[in-house]
Amino acid sequence: MKGKLYGVGVGPGDPELMTIKAARIIKECDVIAVPGKIPEESIAFRIARQACPEIDEKLLIGIPMPMTKDEKVLKRSHEEGVLSLKHQLDEGKDTAFLTLGDPTVYSTYLYLHNEIRKGEYEAEIISGVPSFCAAAAKLHMSIGEKDEQIHVIPASYQVEGALGLPGTKVLMKAGKKLPDVKKLLREQNAESVMVENCGMENERIYHGTENIPEDAGYYTLLFVKKRGGEQ
Predict the structure, then answer these.
(1) How many CB atoms lie within 10 A of CB 203?
(2) Which residue of 16, 106, 212, 217 is 20 to 30 Å from 202, comparing CA positions?
(3) Domain end position, chosen among 126, 153, 175
(4) Using one digit for the tens of pLDDT, what is the confidence trace for 129-146?
(5) What residue numbers bound the domain in which 8 lies?
(6) Burial class (CB in 10 A: 0-12, 13-18, 19+), 145
């Protein structure tokens, strides 16, 4: 009998934000798969380890997921990742693939999930708390009220047009694009707040475009609204 694959969202950083279901699946699975060559160095692994010390007793496998837009490189890494997961599943081992936040929000896990499901394998997604929800709670702010629209935008791509949308804009993984994003925010006279490494020890919060640094880590997001709450 083949094993089952679980894409497990471990939340944004605070291990107490991991769901009860995520913790149960991790404890029940035979294998823990983690993005990256060295599982113990993965942020997702370190979060899960704090909530589930039993993870140290599991078989750990690293699934390299390069940070690149090169389609050939991505395709090759995805194919290799699928083969590695299938090897464990073919041996009848239930496998949990850990991912930050929620697996359905800009997660590379979904490529693996969809490929696995094309074969004779079972796969399930275990939701996690998205980083922008945790960050909004930290800021005591509402992302959306009444008829206010919410737009979640990958900041590593073109954001100029997206910043003109009404309501709240959530710019995900904005670290490398901060200089460009700051320039656009100043031009649009928009209100903004930046949260870096939400829920982690090195969490940083910056209110106002003028206070946003020129560079930041990969796990950086911004909330952008029109001044005065205008739509």
Answers:
(1) 16
(2) 106
(3) 126
(4) 999 999 999 999 999 999
(5) 4-126
(6) exposed
